Write a sequence for this structure.
């Protein structure tokens, strides 16, 4: 059994750890990325516990229009798309089942790969991001689609962090290092802002509820 204890952090941190709970409505975290853009290779990963609901809409986990989207697409498949592609690496493996999952997507310059709990579920050739939006969204996509469930530890990295042969998901809070473009621990526990540990970006929290949460993974 791996016990992952997330310590409170950030300028406004209170006694934690915490996570964000989304109700599937208009909840969202919006991040103004300014002049930051995806690099030639990158990784996005997060810990999620999506509520099992009929797949009557897409349920994005992280969406950066023009750069990438990762989450559940309409129909219930889990997918990771890069650039302006309307399709991406998709798998029938569901992450919206009420169970805690590590979800990751990597882009190596030519291929998008989707991982669930350290296992490469799908991959597809893609087109590199060209002119992404300046707004990164966590738990929504700026359209009618919205995530429902718990979301914790979102990180975007400037390199491929995971190998195609599979990996053991991180056993603690995501690390900030020289390859971290953005990192949200969601441990503030109060208020309508959350803080990026890599660049110091302040993001706006709309509707999502702070909940006390200690991440526990059972193998």
């Amino acid at each position: 059994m791996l016990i992952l204890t997330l310590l409170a952090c950030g300028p406004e941190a209170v006694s934690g750890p915490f996570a964000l709970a989304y109700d599937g409505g208009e909840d969202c975290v919006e991040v103004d990325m300014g002049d930051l853009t995806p690099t030639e290779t990158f990784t996005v990963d997060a810990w999620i516990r999506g509520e099992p609901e009929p797949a009557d809409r897409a349920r994005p986990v992280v969406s950066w229009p023009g750069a990438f989207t990762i989450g559940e697409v309409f129909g219930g498949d889990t997918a990771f798309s890069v650039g302006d592609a309307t399709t991406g690496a998709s798998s029938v493996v569901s992450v919206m089942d009420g169970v805690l999952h590590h979800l990751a997507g990597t882009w190596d310059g030519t291929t998008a790969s989707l991982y669930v709990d350290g296992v490469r579920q799908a991959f597809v050739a893609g087109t590199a991001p060209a002119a992404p939006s300046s707004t990164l969204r966590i738990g929504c996509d700026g359209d009618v689609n919205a995530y429902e469930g718990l979301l914790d530890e979102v990180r975007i990295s400037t390199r491929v962090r995971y190998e195609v042969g599979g990996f053991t998901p991180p056993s603690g809070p995501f690390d900030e290092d020289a390859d971290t473009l953005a990192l949200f621990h969601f441990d503030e526990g109060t208020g309508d802002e959350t803080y990026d540990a890599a660049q110091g970006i302040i993001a706006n929290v709309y509707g999502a509820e702070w909940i006390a949460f200690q991440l526990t993974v059972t193998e």
About this structure: The first strand starts at residue 2 and ends at 3. Residues 10 and 195 are 6 Å apart (CA to CA). The radius of gyration is 16 Å. Confidence is low (pLDDT under 50) at residues 1-14.
